[in-house]
Amino acid sequence: MRRRREAAVARVTIREVAARVGVSTATVSRALSGAKRVSPAVVEQVRQAAEELGYSANGIASALRRSRTDTVGMVVPSITNPFFTSLVEGVEHALQDSGRQLFLCSSRSDPALEAQRLRSLVARQVDGIVISPVHGTESTGAVSWAAGELPLVQVDRYVTGVESDWVGVDDDAALRLLLEHLAERGVRTAAFVSSELTSSSTELRVAGFQEHSARLGIGLAPGGMLLGEYSIEWGREAMQRLLAGPSLPDAVTCADDLIALGVLQTCAAGGVRVPDDLLVTGFDDIPFAALSDPPLTTVRQPQVEIAAEAVRLLADAERAGERPLSRLALQPSLVVRASTGG
Fold first, then answer.
1. From CA 293, how far away is CA 283, in angstroms rounded?
2. Looking at domain 2-57, which of 1.10.260.40, 3.40.50.300, 3.40.50.1370, 3.40.50.720 is its CATH number?
3. Superfamily of segment(s) 69-169+303-330
4. pTM value?
5. Model confidence over 248-290: pLDDT tens digits?
């Protein structure tokens, strides 16, 4: 028993690891935290020395000394949606560059669960939170409370009345690109398949479709405003409704790529040739968009840039006191593929 106590007291320090490798303690800290500023060779040397010496970093003590935990929480509506999966990966990579860790939470598109996730992250004393809110109004209370407790950045979607930064894509510009492309293809009538109007991004995409289709002389097909959810299943169902109508529009514009993939599946099953009989477009440019049959014309969100800006804004919020809030709408790009004859 005495020997165990003596071993516990004689705990290996970070200085001993640094001395073994011949580097500074700061380099050891960065190497063990995964920061990319340390070469792979040095990282391997540090980890080997730490293992040989029996060094174990005391993260709690370090956090208490620096009044920070080097952790950031992130809450997204779904981790099964490839768009959010890519966004999470971008944020995680941006954080890793500064030696910080990500705590990821899925709200499963449930405002009540989202509020629970936010309370949990605040209780864990993360340094800040990145969130894509589930609902435009029902998320407001929890997001506003969390923003009052910690630095917080909204990403992709946002709720109003919250003191926080926001970064996402310019949804209006994205719909302008899509509809101008369809107009150039000779489209005169179109349907729009989207989620219900429960989030800022959905509202902006519906508004963008209505504004730019009217400006370009593209009429809305009878029963052509179809609002459900962001899923392949809803895309299938929406296209079945259009097939049951009196006639097909010239094009179906979808508010995300998952919906568009479902539309393409129903077209194939129903004998509708894309793009000969119908043009189809998506939104996001998830990896599956290029692999569909036919490959999907869509707008690409600058996900890497959105993630990097979210992490930068969070760092700014952590350092600064009173400062102007930022709202960054980044520009999308049109990706033309075979679903519109490209």
1. 16
2. 1.10.260.40
3. Response regulator (3.40.50.2300)
4. 0.80
5. 999 999 999 999 999 999 999 999 999 999 999 999 999 999 9
Angstrom distance (rounded) from CA 48 to CA 29: 14
Which CATH class for the 171-301+335-340 domain?
alpha beta
Give the whole-angstrom CA distance, residue 21 versus residue 16: 9
CB 141 within 8 A of CB 185: no
The Cα–Cα gap between 129 and 147 comes to: 8
Coil vs helix vs strand at 220: strand
Q: How far is CA 119 from CA 1, 64, 116, in A?
A: 41, 21, 5
The amino acid present at 19, given as its one-letter code, is: A
pLDDT at 195: 96
What pLDDT, on a 0 to 100 scale, did the predictor assign at position 65?
44
Q: pLDDT digits over 153-203, tens only?
A: 999 999 998 989 999 999 999 999 999 999 999 999 999 999 999 999 999
Domain with CATH 1.10.260.40 in the chain: 2-57
Nearest-angstrom CA–CA distance, 95 and 92: 5
Say which DSSP state 178 is in.
H
